């Protein structure tokens, strides 16, 4: 049996999110969708390639409106990555974020980690779909009906939610 070791450059775990964002970039306003978030930054998808600094405003589920300033660290063109489905995927590092927003993001990530861990455990126990529905609703995964696909998705998210150990 072969094992592969993936290297992770991120300092913070990150959680999936699906939130519409207002993005301000060099005086221009555009819409985007935040797809992933952690204490150090986020990934969002928009219609154009961005470089430099951006301001983002979006709703963090359960915590309300957030505004933060970020530096775009990378941008992936549509079709080059699964992340870029629907537009350009931009990975950002927060450059200015208030302590309350930082704490709310940390709580959101912890909440997602708990919910995904519970779902992973329930799947491992072979719980029927009806018993999984409350978690599937909370995680907005009711559209995933294939159990194998759901297990794979949950495994991918769980790996992103793990703390990164410095080398």
CATH class of the largest domain: Mainly Beta
Element string (H = helix, E = strand): EEEEEEHHH
For the sheet with most strands, the description reads: 6 strands, antiparallel, barrel
Tally of individual helices: 3
Helix content: 25-40%
CATH topology of the largest domain: Thrombin, subunit H
CATH homologous superfamily assignment of the largest domain? predicted glycosyltransferase like domains
CATH architecture of the largest domain: Beta Barrel
Q: Average pLDDT value?
A: 88
The total number of structural domains is 2
Biggest sheet strand order reads 1-2-3-6-5-4
Straight-line N-to-C gap:
25 Å
Quaternary: single chain
Q: Any idea what the radius of gyration is?
A: 17 Å
Strand-residue proportion: 35-45%
Cα shape: globular
Structural class: alpha+beta
| pLDDT < 50 stretches | 1-8
Provide an overview of this structure.
It is globular, with a radius of gyration of 17 Å. The protein is an alpha+beta fold and 167 residues long. The protein has helices at 99-124, 129-138, 147-160; strands at residues 14-25, 28-38, 41-46, 52-60, 64-76, 88-96. 30% of the residues lie in helices and 36% in strands. The longest helix has 26 residues, at 99-124. A hairpin with a 2-residue loop joins strand 2 and strand 3 (41-46). A six-stranded antiparallel barrel has the order 1-2-3-6-5-4. The model is unreliable at 1-8 (pLDDT under 50). The chain folds into two domains: 14-98, predicted glycosyltransferase like domains (Thrombin, subunit H), CATH 2.40.10.220; 105-160, no CATH class.
